Every structure is written in structure tokens, then in C-alpha cells.
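Reproducibility note. Readers wishing to regenerate the assembly model reported in the main text can use the exact inputs given here. Chain order matters: entities are listed in the order in which they were concatenated for prediction.
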Amino acid sequence: MTKQEFTITVYTENQIGLLNRIAIIFSRRKINVESLNTSPSEVEGIHRFTIVIHEAEEVVKKLVRQIEKQVEVLKAYYNNNEELIWQELALYKVSTDEIAEHVKVERLLREHGARAVVIRKDYTVFETTGHREETDKLITVLEPYGLIEFVRSARVAIIKASSGFHEKLREFEALEPSEEVIENEFLDKQDEVFTM
Amino acid sequence: MQSTLSQPQKAALPTKNETISGSKAVLEALLAEGVKTIFGYPGGAIMPIYDALYDYTDKLEHILVRHEQGGIHAAQGYARTSGNVGVVFATSGPGATNLVTGLADAMIDSTPLVAVTGQVFAHLLGTDAFQETDVINITTPVTKWNYQVTDAAEIPAVLAKAFYIARSGRPGPVLIDITKNAQLQLFEYEGYKKCEHVRSYRPKPIIRKEYIEQAAALINEAKQPFVIFGQGVILGKAEKEFIQFIEKAGIPSAWTIMGMSAIPTNHPLAVGMLGMHGNYGPNVLTNECDLLIAIGMRFDDRVTGRLDKYAKQAKVIHLDIDPAEIDKNVKATVPVWGDCKDTLPLLTELIEPKVYPQWLQKFRDYAQQEQEQCIEPELHPTTDILSMGEVINVLNELTGGDAIIVTDVGQHQMVACRYANFNQTKSNITSGGLGTMGFALPAAIGAKYGDPKRTVVAVIGDGGFQMTLQELGTIMQFDVNVKILILNNEFLGMVRQWQQLFHDRRYSFVNITSPDFVQVAKGYRIEGNSVRERKELREALSTMLNHNGAYLLEVMVGKENNVFPMVPQGCSVAEIRLK
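Running the prediction on these inputs yields the following C-alpha cells for the assembly.
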């Protein structure tokens, strides 16, 4: 069981205390959360958690079931990186003098897909979005010129194969959901485990 | 002239569309949910609810316990024998933190509870106010759901949701924390509506026909199938469906400690108890069956022993209402998600009637070996010193297996569960998952309220009894007819047994001194007796059972007796030791 990066996407009610309920599922098992983002989702009133962890798939599966078991969680999914489109946003604060003197700002912006958010006499703030490697690269470039501050956001991710949550929510609101909409991972994914 | 000290007047009960207090709304909710008994303890932050309770004493019975832990264990005992949701009240701060052990116990043993705690005024939250504690965050890992109410208008809907969540699906404890201002606040009451649906919560997974068919096919092909079942059968109220299933399938069946009493212990297909101190056959043959059918059980480590050597030869069918249990510990060949009350009849319909005389005989052969090497010496010792097993054996003869047996945790628990006979379901009440010493005495009080017609015997060790013996006060005040049977070996016996077997007899702090239990009981105006001679045993037990009211009987038993068979930790179930 090799560990790899997985992104867990959780659709939830907007409820105080739910962040803690989800967080302790990881901490109880001594699993480190690499990044965690909460935001609104495509459906009004439904929140979306995006959680990145480095774990074996077997473990991730169990975590997802524990998350889904929480009363206020509607649905949880897990995906590997191939199944996702994702971005992180990073901000870099550097001294304007330093940067103007030593680097060609234009080249910097072009090569790293960055843009200047604020330019002041004393400092400039750049912004990039991208994968971890891409935002890391700009740190390496800027470090020699005195990187004053750096911050990176949690990952936000879109599941390539997902058709969104509007349809599903309707099923959740119904008393008797149809079998087709409540997907079942054993039927969908476990064919190799059970054959008749 | 009228005295100013005249009895306070009772207020009238609310009608629909009336302005009432949050506290009244709490009690109206309990009535609407059919609650009759509350276990609790008042305090500053829950006083408005207790004040409202003053007007409801003809409809709601409140049992004043001696400690909040006693209150919640009593609510657990009540829930387990009645099959209904247990209710406990406690105040904020220490009152609420004293519930934590009981919540954890109810969580791991899937017991439906609603705990209502008082909380400081909403404007004081987070200020370290007197008796303020962050109850919601403290109890999050040990509740199925919890919620803090700061506005009285939320109370009817929140309580309705609490009861629905506690009892539906895989049951569990729910805690509702209500700030004092919300208890006092008046609001427009629109009546109580029971909750039947929460959109983010699916208590019962959808039954998939494919699984039922695949499971039936495996059962029909099997040569040596083995059924292991847990409390899911009892919680699902599926005892009848379960018996119909095993009788048609003809499959030998063993229970976990929590599943015990779901079928009569003398059922022809019953082969005994699983697990660390379970029976010989069920443990050994788990590793010989070709099909393991797990019903409403969760493959606890005390049942499976070493997991990588557990039933590796067998295909596994796992029936459970909680999808998170599937593949958690043991990989299922076919998972049958759903309430076993619904899935078992579907399965029964598709299977062929069968018998497995040779396979069943294997269980009988192992049982014979166990009988000779373990059971016989335990039930009929050759020394003058009494054994725990013979006490339970005589108790069986006197109760005929009709009593509810509530056990604490330790050697006496294992012995009681190994040897007690049960004729009907919901009769074995014990702290299975959490292993909470001190559980039995308060749980027995609740068990009696949950099923008042039946005899309740609390079997407790000398250690565990001293953890919650203050509840003798509750028994005294409310005249609760429970029989307390202390099996006193003057040791913390189970730890001592492990120290003997695995720590070279280094008896580290297991030597526990006890007070004169009979005198303690007498202080609480509870009659009692203590015996140590075999010739006194039967009569002493009979006196206890026939006594009109609570009774405490202490039986002095062998100090260094061990519970066998035993699957030592880290060993496979097939390596179970008879001595």
C-alpha cells in the first residue's frame, strides 16, 4: 500500500462545529492534513470542503466513509491527482527596490504566470496560481532578492468526472432516493473483489 | 390569614400557539417522544428546566441519581432493556463533563440516548464563566450528533431531530446543550412535529438486490458456513427474522458479547460466544469455515484476535446498517448493506433449506473438550473455595434464564457472559466496547425502569462496584428493586490474570481493599448478606431473588482464579488456550 496524494471533496450542510467533526476524523487516526479549504459549492446553502492528504488508498477509503457517516455530511468523494483539475494561489511580498534593481520584472511575470497585485514604493506583491511545483518555483527565484512574506492557499479542486451536486441534492431531499443516484462504490468500483 | 409558606402552585401546561418558555418546550418534546423516565441531576445552568419539570411530575418521572455518570449509565440501561431512547439531564461544566464516559460507552455500543445539558447564558459563552465548559467540542468525538441551542425557538425542531438521529439507523448518543437564556426565553410555540427526515442523513442504506442474490448464492454453495452475530440483531429488533434465517439455512451461529440473548442460549444452532474469552469451537472453527456470515457486528479486536490470521480461508458476507463498518477490519466478499430486519427475510427467501450435521458436530466436539477442561472445573470445583462460574450456574437454576443480567467489566463479566442462560432478548446488559468499570450498578437501575416486570441482577466485581457505589443512594430513595451480586475475589481480577500470565506474576496495584459491602448497603437501608461457603450459596441467592426490594449479596470467590479459554493478545483465534 503505497501512499500518494488524494483529494477528498465533501459536500455538507453549513453548520457550526462540522469543521471540528471532520478534522477529528483525521487527528484521531494521527493523519496529517496537507491542506483544507472550505467554500460555498455550486449549490446554494451547500458547503464544499476540499481536503488534501498523503495516504494509502485503503486508508483514504475508510476515512471517506467515516466522513460520510457524519449527520451533516451529504456526500464525500476521494480522487487522485489524475482525476482532478486543481489550483493553489500564492502571494509573494518583495522589496520594490531590490526587485527593480536585480531582476527583469517583466520576464519574471511572464515566465511564472505571475501578476503584480500591488506595487508600492517599499514593496511589491506578486500573485501566482498553479500546482505546488509552479508556485514553489517562484519562491526559489525570489528568495535571493529577499522574500519578505510568502503565503499559499489550500488546494481547490474540480473533479473531472463529476456532473455537480444539483441533481444529487434533489435525491437527498427526497424520502426515497432512487438507486441510480446514490452511487455505490462496491457496485461501481469493486468488481475485481467480487466476481460470480 | 394565608401563610406565605403555602405549597407553590403548579402551572398549567401549554397549548398550541401559546407563548411558552424554552424549558417547557424541552419537556413538551420529551412527552411527544413518549419519554416517561428521565435520569438526571440539577445544577445552576439547568435550573429553568428543573423549574419547569416541577409542573410535569405527574407525566414525567425524574430519577435523581447521585452522580451524572450514574445518570447516563442508567439511561443506557433503560435504553437497552426497553428498546427506546434513554434520556439524561445534567447541568453545565462538571455536570456535562461527568457524562463523557457514558457518551463514549453509548457511542461505541450504539445505544440511543438524548442527553440534555444546561449551559451558561449565551452572552457568557467563551468568557470562562462559572461552570462554563466547551461541552460541544468535548463531546463531539463521542456523540452521533450534538448541537448547542441559544434561541428557544429552535428547541422543538432540535429535540425532534435529536430523537430521530439517536434512534434511527445505527443508534447512538446525541447531546443537546441549551444556554440558560434559551431555557428562560419565551417564544411562540407552534406545537411539536416529529422529525422523519434529515436531508444530509441516510439512516438506512438502500438495499441492493444484487448483494442479496450474491450472498444467497454463496450460502447455497457453502460446505461449512458459520454465522456470527452482534447487537445489530437486537437493535434492529430482528430476532425473529434472524432465527428464521438460521433455522432455514441450518447454520451454526455464535454471538458476540453484545449480540448475546438475541436468540435463546439453548437454541439448537447456538454454538456459544466469540472472542477472547468466548467458547472454544466458535473461535477455532472461525478459521476452518468456508463462509463467514457476519450479521450486525463490527469485528472488534476482542472478537478477531490477530487480524492477519483471521478467517483467511473463508469468504465473508457482512450484513450491516453502517456502511463505514464494511471492510473496516475484515474485507467482505459480499457486503449486504441495510437494516438486517429488512435484509434477512430477503436472504431467507433465496436460500435453500439445509442441515450440516457433520459441521455442527465439530462444534459439539470442541464444546465437549471445553466442557471437560474448562467448564467442569469452573462449575464444580474440587476445592472448598467458590468459583464465579458456580455462582452464575446456581443463579441460572434459580432464575431459569428469565432474568436480565447486568454486568460490569472484568473477570466476573466474562464468566457471567460465558455461563449465564437467557431465554429472551435484551437480557444481557454490559459495557462491551468501552469496557467501563462502574457501569453495572447505575445501568441496572435504568434496566429495571426499562423493563420493570423482569428481575434485574447486577453482577459486579469488588473493584467496579466501588467506582459507582454512590448509586445505592438512588436505589434507596426510589426503592429500585435491583439485585446486586458482588463477586469478590479481593483483586482487580482481570488485570491480575494478565499480570500472572504475561507479566511474570508481578502483581502491580491489583490488590484492592474493600469495605464491608453489607454494612455499606445497610447504611443505605438496603438489606444484604455475604457468603463464602458452598453450602450457603443456593439459599443466599434464593433469598436475594425472593427479597421484596433491592438486595446486596456478596459472594467471596477464589482470589486467583483465571478465566479460560483465552485468546492471548496478538494471537489468532485458532490459538485459543484452554488453560
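We highlight two features of this model. Residues 180 and 190 of chain A are 17 Å apart (CA to CA). Chain A touches chain B at residues 12-13, 16-17, 20-21, 24, 28, 61-62, 65-66, 68-69, 71-74, 169, 172-173, 175, 177, 179, 182, 184, 186-187, 193-194, 196 (CB under 8 Å).
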